[in-house]
């Protein structure tokens, strides 16, 4: 789950400190997966998970909720049902880290010490970095699949849309699932065509980046989709403000180093907000020296660059690749092997190659399964051209991956890729 934007004010350590051998900050995809895998390796480990939320969400499915394929309720389960057997759930959040003394302070003022720390709290959605967004969100035609439950309103808007300007935005920061802002756009295009309102609709994709996607291999096929669907792609357009009542979106547009302000009217506006590490990480010694404040770890071993007993994975880490659940699936075994090696006084030999996967939904029944490593090289799981739109990859995204997530990944099972290939009837 995403983390709160605010910190507890001036927390004071309690008089009853607690200690755990391994303390995991975050009970989302990364925290649950790595805990489950550790306990599968060694049931004697004392592991506690610090997580304030009472529900666990499979967030990759929110694109499908926004397209009317799933109900939001189908994407969430009680957090208690996801905590691995043998782990202790501490329902609390972090206020501050003290890595020099190997403890942290919770939002309720409790001091918890540890031998080893795994930082995996997820990413922070910085809604307030776009003026007027928080006030407009959920009304006036402004929606976001990134808001928990917000994809339901996205689908309502798509269903009710009768033509006009439909804008979809991508911010100037790294975000979780970098393909999601355009996936919802392609599905909206299909819906508008089915309703017969596409001819009176202008669809515009406004991205703060210079290209439609960050991995070169997948840019040509995505540009073909954009051309086929008649979408207006506007690069270097960074959303800075929303005038909700007037239904206007304000962008900073940078061309040849010169930035100008451009205002665009909209009837439907889907926003991917700026994102960063949670504030409690930014304010700590664990963070890199950057306004985004990611946890400073080695990109291969996932060990902290300054604190040897600290590891991090998932969206809050400094790993320079796409922030997806599929990336976590490959990061977790590396972290587990290296942490256990550290505990047992061995060498950290496991290496993460930057694998990530972004199922690029290009319409109902069509998906490009974009898999790649740190260098942007394609890293396909199937013996198929990964740049092609396929119905089989849609079925994988729609049906197989959610099952694998709940029944394999969160259970700490290894070799999810082999399970996926068996379920789809494919071999690599």
Task: Chart the SSEs and their pairings.
Layout: E1 18-25, H1 29-41, E2 47-50, E3 55-57, H2 62-66, E4 76-78, H3 79-82, E5 88-90, E6 94-98, E7 103-106, E8 111-119, E9 124-125, H4 133-136, E10 142-143, H5 150-160, E11 164-170, H6 180-195, E12 201-207, H7 219-229, E13 232-234, E14 237-243, E15 248-255, E16 258-265, E17 268-270, E18 275-276, H8 279-282, E19 310-312, H9 325-343, E20 356-363, E21 366-372, H10 391-409, H11 416-424
Helix pairs in contact: 1-9, 10-11
Largest sheet: 7 strands, mixed
Radius of gyration equals: 21 Å
What structural class do you assign from the helix and strand content?
alpha/beta
The number of helices is 11
CATH topology of the largest domain: FAD/NAD(P)-binding domain
- Which CATH class of the largest domain applies here? Alpha Beta
Strand content: 15-25%
From the 3D coordinates, which CATH architecture of the largest domain would you assign?
A: 3-Layer(bba) Sandwich
Identify the CATH homologous superfamily of the largest domain. FAD/NAD(P)-binding domain
Q: Which word captures the global form?
A: globular
When the domains are counted, the total is 3
Low-confidence stretches: 1-15, 421-428
What's the count of strands? 21
User: What is the typical, i.e. mean, pLDDT?
Assistant: 93
Q: Portion of residues in helices? A: 25-40%
Distance between the termini: 33 Å
How is this structure best described in words?
It is a single chain. With 428 residues, the protein is an alpha/beta fold. It has three domains: 18-123 and 277-343, 3-Layer(bba) Sandwich (FAD/NAD(P)-binding domain), CATH 3.50.50; 127-274, FAD/NAD(P)-binding domain (3-Layer(bba) Sandwich), CATH 3.50.50; 356-424, no CATH class. The chain has eleven helices and 21 strands. Strands 1, 2, 5, 6, 7, 8 and 19 form a seven-stranded mixed beta sheet that branches. A five-stranded parallel beta sheet has the order 10-17-11-12-13. The chain is globular. The model is unreliable at 1-15 and 421-428 (pLDDT under 50).
């Amino acid at each position: 789950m995403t983390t709160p934007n605010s910190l507890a004010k001036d927390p004071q350590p309690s008089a009853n400190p607690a200690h755990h051998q391994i303390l995991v900050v975050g009970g989302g995809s990364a925290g649950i997966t790595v805990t489950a895998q550790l306990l599968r390796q060694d049931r004697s480990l004392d592991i506690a998970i610090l997580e304030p939320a009472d529900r666990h969400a499979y967030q990759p499915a929110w694109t499908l909720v926004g397209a009317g394929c799933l109900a939001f309720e189908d994407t969430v389960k009680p957090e208690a049902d996801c905590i691995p057997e043998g782990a202790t759930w501490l329902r609390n959040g972090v206020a501050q880290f003290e890595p020099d003394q190997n403890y942290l302070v919770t939002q309720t003022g409790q001091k918890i010490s540890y031998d080893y720390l795994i930082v995996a709290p997820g990413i922070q959605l910085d809604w307030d970095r776009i003026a007027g967004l928080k006030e407009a969100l959920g009304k006036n035609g402004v929606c976001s699949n990134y808001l928990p439950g917000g994809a339901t309103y996205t689908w309502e808007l798509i269903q009710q849309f009768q033509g006009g300007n439909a804008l979809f935005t991508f911010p100037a920061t790294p975000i979780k699932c970098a393909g999601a802002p355009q996936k919802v756009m392609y599905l909206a295009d299909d819906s508008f065509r089915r309703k017969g309102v596409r001819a009176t609709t202008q669809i515009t994709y406004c991205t703060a980046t210079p290209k439609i996607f960050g991995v070169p291999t997948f840019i040509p096929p995505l540009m073909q989709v954009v051309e086929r669907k008649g979408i207006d792609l506007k690069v270097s357009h960074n959303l800075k403000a929303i005038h909700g009542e007037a239904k206007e979106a304000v962008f900073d547009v940078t061309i040849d180093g010169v930035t100008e302000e451009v205002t665009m009217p909209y009837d439907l506006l889907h926003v991917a907000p700026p994102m960063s590490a949670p504030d409690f990480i930014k304010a700590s010694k664990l963070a890199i020296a950057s306004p985004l404040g990611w946890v400073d770890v080695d990109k291969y071993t996932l060990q902290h660059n300054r604190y040897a007993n600290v590891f991090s994975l998932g969206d809050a880490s400094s790993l320079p690749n796409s922030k997806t659940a599929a990336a976590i699936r490959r990061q977790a075994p590396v972290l587990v092997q290296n942490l256990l090696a550290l505990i047992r006084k061995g060498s950290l030999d496991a290496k993460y190659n930057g694998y990530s996967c972004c199922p690029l939904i290009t319409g109902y029944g069509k998906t490009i399964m974009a898999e790649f490593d740190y260098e942007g090289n394609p890293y396909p799981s199937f013996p198929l051209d990964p740049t092609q739109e396929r119905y089989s990859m849609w079925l994988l995204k729609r049906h197989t991956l959610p099952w694998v997530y709940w029944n394999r990944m969160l259970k700490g099972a290894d070799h999810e890729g082999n399970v996926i290939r068996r379920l789809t009837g494919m071999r690599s």
